C-alpha cells in the first residue's frame, strides 16, 4: 500500500486514506511502531489530535479513528491512564463525524473501538451498552464487522461471568465465520471460544469442555500466525498456559506463559506482560514456590498500578494478597485484599471484588473478629449474587458454613444438641481448654498478635507462661499462628547444651490427607493450612500405602473411604500394622456410612463429608493434644 504513495498524481485525501489503510493493517497485526510510521505526518503522538487541514470530512473522520484506536492500544500497553482518556475522546469524535456523514457501518466500527477501550479499563457495563448500540446501528449490514463486534461483546459477558451467554453468541457466529478468509478474525473467534469453554469446563466440571478449549486455542494460535499478528498469538499462548495451570500441568503451563511473555515484550505491551506475570505467580504458588511467586506478582502489580485497567489491577492485587498470606505477612495481605475488593468494585468488576473478599475470608477468617468476618461475607455475597461460576458459588457456601459453624459453637450447649449427645465422650479438661482457647483467640486478635498486650488483656502480669502455651507442645499451640511472627534474634555467642537445643526445637504438624475429589481436598487443605499446619494430599489409595511405609513424620492422617486402589478402611488397617504408624491418630472423613467398620479398623475419629469440614480443625487439635498429653 505504501508504495502507492510514490504516485505524484495522488490527492492529499487519497494519500491519507492509503496511510490509514496501511496503519490499520499493521495495527491489526500488532505491529504498532510500524503503524505509527505508516501514518507519518498524520501522527502527532499518543492521544494527540492529528493535523486535518485541507482534507475532506470523510478522510478526517477516518484519520481521527485510526489515531484514536492506535492511541488506545499504545496507552493501554504503557498503562497511561491520561492518554487512554484522550484516545477515547478521539474515537468518540470520529464516531460523531461518521454519523454526520450518514455512514452507519463506520460509526459502528468506531463505537466498537470505543467499547473496547471501556472493556480494557474494566468498565464492563458501559462496554456492553456501547456494543449493543453498535450492533443495532449495523442491522444487516457488513456481516464481517458484525461478527467482529459480536466477538468483542462476548469478552464483556466472559469478564462478568455470564459464560453461557457468551457461548450462545459464539455458537451463533460459527456458521458465519466458517467461510471467512480473514485469518485474524477467525483467530479471535477460536481464542474467545477457547476462553469460554475453559471456564465453563472449570465451573461446570466438564472435562470435555477443557479438551475442546485446548483445540480452540491451538486453532487460534494457528490463525494468528497466518495473519502475522504477534499480540493476539501471545494472547492465545497466555490462555493456553492458564488452562494448563487449571488442570495441574504446571511445567507445560510455564512453557506457554513464558512464550506469551516473550511475544508481548516483542510488541512492548507492558500491561499484557503484567497479566502473564499474574498467571505465572498463580502457577508458582500452586507449586509451593512462594518466594518466586511473590517476585512475579510484585512486578505485575507495580506495572498495573500505573495504568487505567483497574479490573486487571484488582485481579493482580488479589493474587498478591494470597501470596502474602502464604508467606505469613498477614497484615499486608489483609490490606492488599481489601484494596483489591475496593478497586474492583470501583471499576464495575463486582465479581472480581467478591472473589477478593472470598480470598480475604479464606486466608484470614481465623485472624479477624467475628463482626469483620460476617461483614466481609455479607458484602461478598451481595457482590456475587449473579455469578454463574460454580466454583465461586461453592467457595461462597463454604465460607457461609464456616461462619455458621463458628456461631453454633457459641450457643448454649442444649439448644442444638440432645442431652445424650452433649454428654457423649465428654471430657471436662478438654472443655475447659476449649473455653479458655476462645478468650485467648479473641485477645490475640484484639492485640493484633502481640503476646505481651494479649497477656495484659487476659489479666496476666507475666507473658512467659502465655508464650509457653502457644509454643509447640503447649495446650494452645494451634493458636500460635495468630501471634506476630517472632523477630530473628542475633545468634548468642554462648552455645546452649545439646539437650537444651533439643528441648527448644519446634515440632512441625504434618498431615496426610487421602482424598480423590479435588474440591474437598482443596477445602481441607485451606482449612488446615490456615492454622499453620502442613498438609500433603494424595488422591490414590495404592499411592497412600507407599507413603505410609515411608519415614515421613506425619502427625495425623485423614482418610476418605471411597478411593481408587485401596479404600480408607484398608488404609487404616494397614497403618495399624506398621510400628511407626500404630499410634498416629486417624480421622475417617467420608460421605459413606461406614462408621462401625471404621471404629473396628482403628480410627481415632469419624467425621461426615462435607458437613463436618468445620469440625476438622477442632478434631485435629483435640487428637494432637491428646497424643501429646499421652506421651508426656
Quickly describe the structure.
The chain has helices spanning 12-28, 32-39, 57-77, 81-101, 104-121, 124-138, 143-159, 163-178, 183-203, 207-227, 230-246, 250-266, 270-286, 290-304, 310-326, 330-346, 350-364, 370-383, 390-408, 419-423, 428-446, 451-457, 464-470, 498-504, 518-529, 541-549, 568-577, 595-601, 616-631, and strands at 510-514, 534-538, 556-559, 586-590, 605-608. With 632 residues, the protein is mainly α.
Walkthrough of the structure:
With 632 residues, the chain is mostly helical. Among the domains are: 419-486; 510-631, Response regulator (Rossmann fold), CATH 3.40.50.2300. The protein contains 29 helices and 5 strands. The chain has helices at 12-28, 32-39, 57-77, 81-101, 104-121, 124-138, 143-159, 163-178, 183-203, 207-227, 230-246, 250-266, 270-286, 290-304, 310-326, 330-346, 350-364, 370-383, 390-408, 419-423, 428-446, 451-457, 464-470, 498-504, 518-529, 541-549, 568-577, 595-601, 616-631; strands at 510-514, 534-538, 556-559, 586-590, 605-608. It has a 5-stranded parallel β-sheet, sandwiched between helices. The chain is elongated. It starts with 11 loop residues before the first helix and ends with a helix.
Amino acid at each position: 500500500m505504501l508504495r502507492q504513495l510514490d504516485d505524484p498524481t495522488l490527492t492529499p485525501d487519497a494519500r491519507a486514506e492509503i496511510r490509514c489503510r496501511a496503519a490499520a493493517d499493521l495495527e491489526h497485526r500488532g505491529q504498532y511502531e510500524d503503524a505509527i510510521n505508516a501514518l507519518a505526518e498524520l501522527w502527532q503522538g499518543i492521544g494527540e489530535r492529528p493535523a486535518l487541514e485541507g482534507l475532506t470530512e470523510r478522510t478526517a473522520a477516518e484519520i481521527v479513528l485510526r489515531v484514536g484506536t492506535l492511541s488506545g492500544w499504545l496507552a493501554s500497553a504503557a498503562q497511561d491512564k491520561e492518554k487512554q482518556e484522550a484516545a477515547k475522546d478521539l474515537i468518540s469524535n470520529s464516531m460523531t463525524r461518521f454519523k454526520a456523514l450518514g455512514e452507519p457501518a463506520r460509526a459502528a466500527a468506531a463505537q466498537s473501538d470505543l467499547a473496547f477501550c471501556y472493556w480494557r479499563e474494566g468498565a464492563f457495563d458501559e462496554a456492553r451498552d456501547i456494543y449493543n448500540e453498535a450492533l443495532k446501528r449495523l442491522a444487516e449490514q457488513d456481516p464481517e464487522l458484525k461478527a467482529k463486534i459480536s466477538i468483542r461483546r462476548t469478552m464483556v459477558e466472559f469478564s462478568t461471568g455470564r459464560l453461557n451467554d457468551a457461548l450462545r453468541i459464539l455458537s451463533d457466529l460459527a456458521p458465519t465465520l466458517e467461510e471467512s478468509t480473514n485469518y485474524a478474525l477467525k483467530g479471535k473467534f477460536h481464542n474467545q471460544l477457547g476462553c469460554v469453554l475453559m471456564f465453563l469446563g472449570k465451573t461446570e466440571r466438564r472435562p470435555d469442555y477443557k479438551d475442546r478449549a485446548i483445540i480452540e486455542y491451538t486453532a487460534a494460535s494457528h490463525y494468528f500466525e497466518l495473519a502475522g499478528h504477534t499480540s493476539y498469538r501471545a494472547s492465545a499462548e497466555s490462555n493456553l498456559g492458564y488452562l494448563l495451570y487449571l488442570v495441574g500441568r504446571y511445567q507445560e503451563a510455564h512453557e506457554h506463559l513464558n512464550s506469551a511473555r516473550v511475544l508481548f515484550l516483542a510488541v512492548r505491551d507492558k500491561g499484557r506482560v503484567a497479566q502473564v506475570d499474574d498467571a505465572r505467580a498463580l502457577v508458582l504458588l500452586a507449586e509451593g514456590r512462594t518466594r518466586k511467586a511473590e517476585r512475579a506478582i510484585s512486578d505485575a502489580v507495580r506495572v498495573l498500578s500505573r495504568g487505567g485497567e483497574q479490573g486487571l489491577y484488582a485481579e493482580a492485587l488479589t493474587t498478591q494478597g494470597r501470596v502474602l498470606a502464604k508467606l505469613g505477612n498477614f497484615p499486608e495481605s489483609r490490606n492488599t485484599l481489601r484494596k483489591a475488593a475496593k478497586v474492583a468494585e470501583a471499576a464495575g468488576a463486582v465479581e472480581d471484588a467478591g472473589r477478593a473478599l472470598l480470598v480475604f475470608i479464606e486466608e484470614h477468617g481465623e485472624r479477624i473478629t467475628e463482626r469483620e468476618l460476617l461483614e466481609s461475607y455479607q458484602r461478598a455475597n451481595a457482590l456475587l449474587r449473579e455469578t454463574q461460576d460454580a466454583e465461586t458459588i461453592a467457595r461462597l457456601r463454604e465460607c457461609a458454613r464456616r461462619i455458621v459453624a463458628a456461631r453454633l459453637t457459641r450457643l448454649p450447649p442444649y439448644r442444638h444438641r440432645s442431652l445424650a449427645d452433649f454428654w457423649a465422650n465428654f471430657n471436662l479438661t478438654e472443655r475447659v481448654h476449649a473455653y479458655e482457647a476462645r478468650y485467648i483467640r479473641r485477645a490475640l486478635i484484639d492485640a493484633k498478635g502481640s503476646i505481651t498486650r494479649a497477656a495484659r488483656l487476659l489479666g496476666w502480669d507475666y507473658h512467659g507462661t502465655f508464650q509457653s502455651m502457644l509454643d509447640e507442645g503447649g495446650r494452645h499451640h494451634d493458636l500460635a499462628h495468630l501471634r506476630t511472627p517472632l523477630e530473628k534474634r542475633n545468634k548468642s555467642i554462648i552455645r546452649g547444651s545439646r539437650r537444651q537445643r533439643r528441648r527448644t526445637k519446634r515440632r512441625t504438624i504434618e498431615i496426610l490427607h487421602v482424598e480423590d475429589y479435588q474440591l474437598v481436598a482443596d477445602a481441607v487443605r485451606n482449612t488446615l493450612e490456615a492454622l499453620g499446619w502442613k498438609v500433603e494430599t494424595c488422591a490414590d489409595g495404592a499411592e497412600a500405602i507407599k507413603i505410609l511405609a515411608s519415614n515421613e513424620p506425619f502427625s495425623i492422617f485423614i482418610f476418605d473411604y471411597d478411593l481408587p486402589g485401596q479404600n480408607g478402611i484398608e488404609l487404616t488397617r494397614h497403618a495399624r500394622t506398621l510400628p511407626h504408624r500404630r499410634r498416629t491418630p486417624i480421622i475417617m472423613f467420608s460421605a459413606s456410612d461406614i462408621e462401625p467398620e471404621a471404629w473396628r479398623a482403628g480410627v481415632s475419629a469419624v467425621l461426615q463429608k462435607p458437613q463436618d469440614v468445620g469440625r476438622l480443625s477442632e478434631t485435629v487439635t483435640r487428637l494432637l493434644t491428646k497424643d501429646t498429653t499421652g506421651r508426656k
